[in-house]
Amino acid sequence: MEKVIEVKNLEKSYKKKKTKELVKAVDGVSFDVYRGEILGLLGPNGAGKTTTIKSICGLLKPNGGSVHINGFDSNKQRLKAVNYISAVLEGNRNIYWRLTVRENMEYFAGNRGISKKEIQGKIDELLNFFNLKQKEDELVSSLSRGMQQKLAIAVALLPDTDVVLLDEPTLGLDVETSYEVRSLLKRIVEEHGKTIIVSTHDMPVVQEVCDRTVIINGGKVVADEKVEDLIKLFETRAYCFTIGDELTNQQVTAIENHFPIVEINDKQINVTLEKEDDLYIIMDILKSEQTNIEKIDRTTVDFEQVFMQLVRGGDQHETTVASH
Ligand SMILES: Nc1ncnc2c1ncn2[C@@H]1O[C@H](COP(=O)(O)OP(=O)(O)OP(=O)(O)O)[C@@H](O)[C@H]1O
């Protein structure tokens, strides 16, 4: 597999305005991105995603480490490196609301040094691809949020760069449009041969669209795995206990304290264990009040549960995933 982006030991600190204290936003982040994949960059608020993305785009100068794009250092050979990347950062604010759909496309093509004449065919192709052709002469301000989002992505595809970086592409979209954007992302990779990095809080996007995910928490990578492998890994530890008696409040508290991912409904406990041995902890809690265990089944997990466990657990999980 051909490596398009290599992020190595990236470090970035910010100085707090009031106290001048240094905050480490990114603390030794490393990962690679391969041609033709959709990589999901995830993490809770403040994890360091934006800082990582801005460093990849060459918008931020890291304090340590490096980013290479197609072999070019995004810091030392910035212009060559960023030539391979286009990005939609901060939602759809990269488009002009007072211009029409087509005018936006022509304007941004011009910004990249592409003449109006040579880009017309490409604009038509993209407008058709994104189902925006019939809206080409309408002002962006009159479009729905979903259409604006699609236009923002279309604009990012104009310069035909190898890598497209998308920050929260489905934020604020209704279910139907979010579904449409998700399938468009897959088609952009398949039909246009792009590599996509998508930063998102939208777990269905990750489960459905991303080949691999890099999860950042507290400025560090806590998982770098294929999405399906992560789900499988956690599935081996997901159990459903059916019990004959109601739990006491102490038992509920004990279970919730031990296991961050748990759902207790009446006489069922759905729990994802951190390691197989944890099965005995939960059985001991049940036995402590002579709770009758009727059966124990393995259950399925979704990506959201995997994510929650990885970001809530801290270092313990880092070891677990790294050893996988
Ligand atoms: N310009 C800045 N000055 C000071 N601190 C900053 C600055 N930018 C980010 N930080 C801090 O660095 C840390 C990482 O921020 P970053 O924006 O990279 O996280 P994020 O994962 O993108 O979060 P979100 O999902 O909320 O956008 C946070 O603690 C944040 O407060």
Automatic annotation (TrEMBL):
Tree of life domain: Bacteria
Keyword ATP-binding: yes
Segments forming a coiled coil: none
Sequence ranges assigned to domain ABC transporter in this UniProt record: 5-243
Keywords from the named record: ATP-binding, Nucleotide-binding, Transport
Keyword Transferase: no
GO molecular function, one term: ATP binding
InterPro entries: AAA+_ATPase, ABC_transporter-like_ATP-bd, ABC_transporter_ATP-binding, P-loop_NTPase
Pfam families: ABC_tran
Sequence similarity: Belongs to the ABC transporter superfamily.
PANTHER family in the cross-refs: ABC TRANSPORTER ATP-BINDING PROTEIN, ABC TRANSPORTER ATP-BINDING PROTEIN NATA
Listed name of the protein: ABC-2 type transport system ATP-binding protein
Species name: Piscibacillus halophilus
